[in-house]
Design goal:
The complex is a heterodimer. Chain A is α/β, with parallel strands linked by helices. Chain A has helices at residues 2-43, 62-75, 88-96, 111-116, 149-156, 166-170, 192-204, 206-211, 228-238, 248-253, 273-282, 319-333, 350-361; strands at residues 51-57, 79-85, 102-105, 122-136, 146-147, 183-187, 224-226, 242-247, 260-262, 268-269, 305-313. In chain A, the strands form two sheets. An eight-stranded mixed beta sheet of chain A has the order 2-1-3-11-4-8-6-7. Classes of the chains: A alpha/beta, B mainly alpha.
């Protein structure tokens, strides 16, 4: 009995000793890094405490933001930015509930979403532009066939059923189209890409606007749904006769065949970053910046282009955070833009940057 | 002596308390989940009532929601998976247990169980890049040539659709059915087999009369577990089913399932759309519950019959 007690205590004493050692190491380790951080902050020329900013929203923006925030933190080691690509809708929800400091969305907030925002007025800051490419798979037909807006909508409405339809041939003299049934592909997941495309369809066709409308998911009249850009691309590649839409960045990086579209000026244009930037440059942008730029004027404009916005509250509750956030967004609109084209995002046009600066200056903190 | 007794009873009491807490925990968790879903789906239920279950339109732009296409897609793909996986899984289990030499037995059962360890997104990718093209170019044209008079095999072969979904699910639930059937058949006493063989039965008759009836309740349990997996499967299904809210007799046609539509649309959904998706979740929850209750009843009734048979 006694021996057993001693034996048990031995284990106990051993455990206590181990715990003590671990605690000492941990404490000394902590204080060590603590002093280091302090000295670093003192040395840093940028004033201010270390701030951590949290954002959530659009998955479309995520690759660009990852690069931007990585570069930003190199020059501003005291600012930590965490961004989660959870989807535009979820980003708006999280900003409304004030669980994040900023959101990012591919579609402006609806009035009921604005009303639900707990922190008051929300500003929409255009941060980049995306374009959507129309891709197709027709055997023995050259690249970049021409598809007019009304033809594209009627294909998706199921009115044009075969590739040898005279309306398609009319815009493509010299191209021989096979007698092949048209199958349409679309995104099955709720997506800003779908929102842009259906916005374009609604803009060019009153019938589409009335019967289907625009949104991140719509009630498609037909076709198959693929998950994400890869799902749609797979549907196109595997079934001859399929037409679908993918983000321009995805199409460019994967060498996907795309069509030329007719813009508002009647010019045939291939999807391009310049075409998307041009859409923003030639559009009439209102002061709140919440505008769709599909089917915008301009000879070089690519018609299926759209803004992506960073959204944040006009009244920032935390002074340090608010200051850091405004500084970050300003950097994203200025220097940050240099990282867009390498990642297949379109730059904001110069004429918008000053206006965005002014808008950011109205933020109170 | 007495000291030992009290110590034991303290241990007993602690154990009883601990297991009671875990039991209550699971129960509360289920109640909370159900409660949360009921609360969150209230706006949708208030607007559509029971027509939500019978409605065929899913239009998030105009806020008009009906879940029948998803219920249909879930049930058809799961049923298809069962039709394909139950005979295969049972056959494999019988082969492994009763006929295979032990070297083959170990390898094959290891491989079969490995199927269960593959993440569902990998199944989905395989479905998109291997299964769907094969269905589209080979299997579906053949099926429509041979059985095209049936509405089941009509329409253009797209590759993705209910057939692809059912096939993927069949592969995914196969290891569950096989593993459980093999285990319960392995638990059949050898005396049972010997007795049958001693009466002059062939091997097949022995399996039919002595092994399967004995293992029946376990086999049904395994099948129901597989069905549960099939009903709730999300990732693999959403990648191959074609994601269209429609009810079509043809297995080639794209469809959508309850779990798949939730996963697809949840991130971008707001207000009524979100509420409708939660209600879809509630329907899935109810279907799973019903399947589980049915499975229990089936297992009980089968188990009772078997004991009766033994007594006779």
């Amino acid at each position: 009995m006694l021996a057993k007690l001693v034996k048990r205590n031995k284990i106990l004493i051993g455990a206590l000793a181990l715990l003590a050692v671990i605690t000492i190491i941990a404490v000394s380790g902590c204080s060590g890094t603590g002093t280091k951080t302090e000295s670093k902050t003192e040395n840093a020329t940028t004033a201010g405490k270390s701030v951590s900013l949290n954002g959530a929203g659009s998955t479309f923006d995520q690759p660009l933001f990852t690069k931007m925030f990585d570069e930003y933190s190199k020059d501003n080691p005291n600012v930590q930015v965490n961004y989660q690509g959870v989807g535009s809708g979820a980003g708006i929800k999280q900003l409304s509930d004030e669980t994040v400091d900023f959101g990012a969305t591919d579609a402006p907030m609806k009035s009921e979403q604005k009303a639900a925002a707990k922190g008051g007025e929300v500003l929409h800051i255009p941060i980049t532009l995306g374009a959507v490419a129309i891709s197709y798979n027709i055997p023995n037909v050259p690249k970049e066939i021409k598809i007019a807006p009304d033809v594209l909508v009627d294909i998706y409405l199921g009115k044009i059923k075969s590739w040898n339809d005279p309306r398609i041939a009319a815009d493509n003299p010299g191209v021989k189209f096979p007698d092949l049934a048209i199958n349409t592909a679309h995104r099955s997941d709720g997506s800003g890409t779908t929102a842009i495309v259906t916005d374009y369809f609604s803009n060019v066709s009153s019938e589409w606007a009335k019967s289907i409308g625009k949104g991140t998911t719509v009630n498609w009249p037909g076709g198959v749904g693929g998950k994400g850009n890869p799902g749609v691309a797979a549907a196109i590649q595997q079934t001859p006769g399929t037409i679908g839409y993918v983000e321009l960045a995805y199409a460019a990086q994967n060498n996907i065949t795309y069509a030329q579209l007719k813009n508002k000026e009647g010019k045939w244009v291939s999807p391009s970053l310049e075409g998307a930037s041009e859409a923003a440059a030639k559009s009439d942008i209102p002061d709140d910046m919440q505008v769709s730029v599909v089917n915008a004027p301009g000879e070089k404009t690519y018609p299926i282009s759209a803004f992506s916005w960073v959204i944040l509250y006009k009244d920032q509750k935390d002074k340090d955070k608010g200051e850091a956030l405004v500084k970050l967004v300003k950097w994203m609109v200025h220097d940050g833009q240099n990282y867009s084209e390498g990642l297949d995002y379109a730059k904001l046009p110069q004429n918008m940057v000053d206006r965005i600066d002014k808008m950011l200056d109205t933020i109170k903190y | 002596m007495q000291k030992v007794k009290t110590r034991l009873s303290i241990g007993d009491r602690t154990l009883k308390l601990l297991v009671l807490v875990t039991a209550i925990l699971v129960l509360t968790l289920m109640i909370f989940i159900a409660w949360q879903m009921i609360v969150a789906s209230k706006p949708s239920f208030a607007k559509f009532g029971w027509s939500f279950v019978t409605g065929k339109t899913w239009d998030s732009v105009n806020g008009n929601f009906g879940a029948l296409p998803f219920i249909y897609g879930t049930l058809v793909t799961s049923l298809l998976a069962l039709i394909l996986a139950v005979p295969t899984g049972l056959g494999l289990a019988i082969f492994l247990n009763e006929m295979a030499p032990s070297s083959i037995k170990t390898t094959v059962s290891f491989l079969a169980e490995l199927l269960a360890a593959i993440p569902s997104v990998v199944y989905g990718l395989w479905g998109i890049f291997v299964l769907a093209p094969w269905l589209q170019n080979t299997a579906e044209p053949w099926l429509s040539r041979m059985f095209g008079f049936l509405p089941l095999f009509q329409g253009p072969p797209l590759g993705v659709g209910m057939l692809a979904g059912g096939l993927i699910l069949a592969v995914m639930i196969l290891p569950i059915i096989t593993a459980i059937s093999r285990d319960v058949m392995g638990a059949v006493p050898n005396t049972q087999r010997e007795a049958a063989l001693a009466l002059g039965t062939t091997r097949w008759e022995m399996i039919k009369t002595a092994v399967i009836p004995y293992a029946k309740s376990g086999i049904i349990g395994g099948i129901m577990l597989g069905l549960g997996r099939a009903l709730g499967e999300t990732m693999a299904i959403t990648m191959v089913i074609g994601n269209r809210a429609q009810i079509s007799a043809s297995l080639f046609a794209p469809a959508n399932s309850l779990a798949s539509v939730i996963a697809s649309e949840f991130t971008e959904a707001t207000s009524l759309h979100l509420s409708a998706l939660v209600e879809v979740g509630l329907i899935l929850f109810s279907i799973s519950l019903i399947v589980n209750i049915l499975a229990r009843l089936l297992v009980w009734s089968v188990a009772r019959n078997v004991t009766g048979g033994h007594a006779a």
